[in-house]
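User: Let's play a game. I give you a shape written as tokens, and you guess the letters that built it. Ready? Here's round one.
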């Protein structure tokens, strides 16, 4: 059905022009206007008013009146250093908030936080954050986030949605919807449901592969878990690529990345079992490498609480894997799990090297790359400069390849996963909202490089 014309707004609340039209071909009968939202207020210790400190052992350093003083003069002269959507973070004041502030609770109205001046290159002169779709019916925008350039199409998998139909018993009366958005311009697109057996597969993470995409099939109580290939064009035919590890069933594959040698790497946590739609696990929670050319599948990493997102560095010498052990699965859709502050909410980096005789790759030199300060790191991607992006509880956080947090894109409600489009465009999944982030035009996603 054709939805009403309406005006989108930027993160500052200003309407875009012209308004865009969105066509929905799903079964909804609603024709409500979908209003874009600005990011919610977020804590920022650097902008909170100073409070007296009862301790007298060591005075706090004086606060810099100008937050831009920490940047070199040539950076301060750049017009985007004072962009209305950006805020420079005083890292020294932030690190000392316990000795100088009562609590870091001041409002944070700007969506782009700059922790290091190298983030200015990522942002470009005019970064933007726009809510394209705000759909209160269900969390349609959760995972995958696969952009297919030949058809200018974006594929997204939903979070779990209640399914009362009798044939949904094997998925504990839950379903996952695959949404396809075909773009004619950044703000003019159609929205469709992909007609394939997604209920049985419970699709989750995905990535580009050949002329279509790979989706992680979490499986059900009856259907096996594994990897499926889905054609990008209608009728979106699906093909099973892998559904067992030497005759032992996978748990519930979560995210996937493809190496330039054609091998497919994926994570396999036990979220499906915890959420009631998978049988009791018969394998540890591992990371795997699958070679479709030979059929070889082998485990390449272990010792995770909940292995989740996976990505290669641009040179493919480093593999980044997120651990979301801080949030365990919940069998109830109405009662989300309670985060544990003492479990992993971390990104680990591994060095990928090749065995000299067989030339087969393996992982070594595991190290902690980053620990997340808000939520957990879910989806993870790299740009062609080597910066690492992860969907977190406050939006998209960005580190340089050395593990330094250089910036954040603050998104109301957080971001579960995301993907790069063309020329600095990022599509961010916020459950019931889909966001478009406009970064600098020189930014290129590591998967597509466009």
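Assistant: Ready! My guess for every position:
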């Amino acid at each position: 059905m054709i939805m009403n014309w309406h005006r989108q707004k930027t993160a500052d609340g200003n309407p875009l022009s012209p308004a865009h039209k969105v066509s929905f071909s799903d079964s909804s009968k609603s024709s409500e206007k979908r209003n874009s939202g600005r990011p919610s207020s977020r804590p920022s210790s650097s902008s909170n008013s100073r409070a007296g400190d009862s301790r007298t052992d060591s005075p706090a350093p004086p606060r810099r009146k100008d937050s831009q003083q920490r940047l070199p003069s040539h950076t301060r002269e750049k017009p985007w250093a004072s962009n209305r959507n950006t805020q420079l973070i005083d890292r020294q004041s932030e690190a000392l908030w316990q000795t100088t502030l009562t609590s870091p609770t001041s409002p944070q109205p700007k969506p782009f936080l700059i922790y290091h001046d190298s983030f200015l290159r990522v942002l470009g002169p005019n970064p933007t954050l726009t809510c394209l779709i705000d759909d209160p019916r269900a969390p349609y925008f959760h995972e995958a986030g696969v952009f297919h350039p030949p058809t200018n199409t974006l594929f997204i998998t939903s979070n779990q949605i209640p399914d009362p139909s009798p044939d949904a018993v094997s998925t504990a009366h839950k379903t996952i919807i695959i949404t396809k958005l075909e773009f004619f311009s950044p703000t003019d697109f159609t929205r469709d449901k992909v007609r394939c057996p997604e209920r049985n597969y419970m699709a989750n993470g995905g990535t580009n592969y050949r002329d279509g995409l790979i989706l992680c099939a979490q499986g059900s109580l009856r259907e096996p878990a594994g990897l499926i290939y889905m054609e990008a064009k209608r009728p979106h035919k699906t093909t099973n690529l892998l559904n067992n590890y030497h005759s032992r069933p996978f748990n519930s594959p979560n995210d996937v990345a493809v190496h330039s040698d054609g091998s497919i790497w994926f994570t396999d946590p036990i979220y499906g079992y915890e959420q009631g739609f998978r049988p009791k696990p018969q394998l540890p929670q591992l990371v795997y490498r699958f070679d479709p050319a030979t059929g070889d599948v082998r485990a390449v990493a272990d010792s995770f609480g909940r292995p989740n997102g996976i990505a290669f560095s641009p040179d493919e010498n480093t593999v980044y894997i997120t651990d979301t052990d801080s949030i365990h699965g919940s069998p109830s859709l109405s009662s989300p799990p309670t985060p544990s502050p003492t479990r992993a909410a971390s990104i680990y980096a591994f060095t990928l090297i090749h065995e000299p005789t067989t030339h087969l790759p393996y992982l070594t030199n595991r190290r902690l790359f980053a620990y997340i300060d808000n939520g957990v790191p879910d989806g993870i991607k790299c740009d062609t400069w080597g910066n690492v992006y992860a969907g977190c509880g406050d939006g998209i956080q960005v580190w340089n390849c050395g593990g330094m947090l250089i910036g954040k894109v603050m998104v109301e409600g957080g971001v579960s996963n995301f993907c790069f489009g063309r020329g600095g465009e990022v599509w961010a999944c916020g459950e019931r909202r889909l966001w478009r982030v406009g970064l600098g035009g020189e930014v290129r996603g590591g998967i597509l490089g466009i």
